[in-house]
Known about the structure:
globular; alpha/beta
Amino acid sequence: MPPDLTIEPSQLNSQGPAVAGRLKRVLYVLDLNPVGKFPSLAEQALVLARAFRERGSLFLPVYLGPLDPGFVNRHTGEGVAIEGLDLGTFRWAGLRRLLQLVREHRIEVVHWNFYHPLVNGYLWALTVLAPAGRAFLYGSYFATGGRPGRGRGANLKWVLKWPLSLRYRKTLCISEYVKSELQQQHWLNLQVVYNFINTERFHPDPDQRREVRRSVGAGDEFVALTVAYLIKDKGIDVAVRAPGRAPRRCRALGRR
């Protein structure tokens, strides 16, 4: 596990003394429905859950449910617990289940991804109903919300929004760019934590490299590969234009 992903009590503890080197027990909520596939984010969550278990702690992913049986089996086969809950719209049944998970698993850190960071009804309900000893994190993949405008109305908007952002002990950004954009929006407690690569599955393989280059007819070209949703928000337009400005012959490949 990369050092940046080690959550130390000295950083996040909200009550009680810190215990050096102990990982917090994390509930990781993300709006992702992995039916019929195994997305990279799901793989990262599985790697983290396994690493937390090996360190005597818990990392519990909660997905937008219901979950595909094959997806569940992939986790239970490695002794990793997961949950599938429909949290897209606030429902009392969903809140009750979240509270059960927090209490049953003695959750100390609640980390949200892909939900509105300020008007999340589940988050505020947990803040009121299960506040003791818990830190709240928000994961930002995109610099959403826009930069502060000008004028009296815009100033009032940011004066009201800024205190709400303080509810999060940390806002985790996947890049320096996202961090700089959120700083423009007056967010505090920002920290960059880069996505990691599962080196158990992805590692240099000269034979495989030669086969892939042969299959795409690369020859002696320099090949740049972009693995992402092929949308402008991912900078795909930059990747498409870049080969034409490269100092040598270059080919760009995209995979999603």
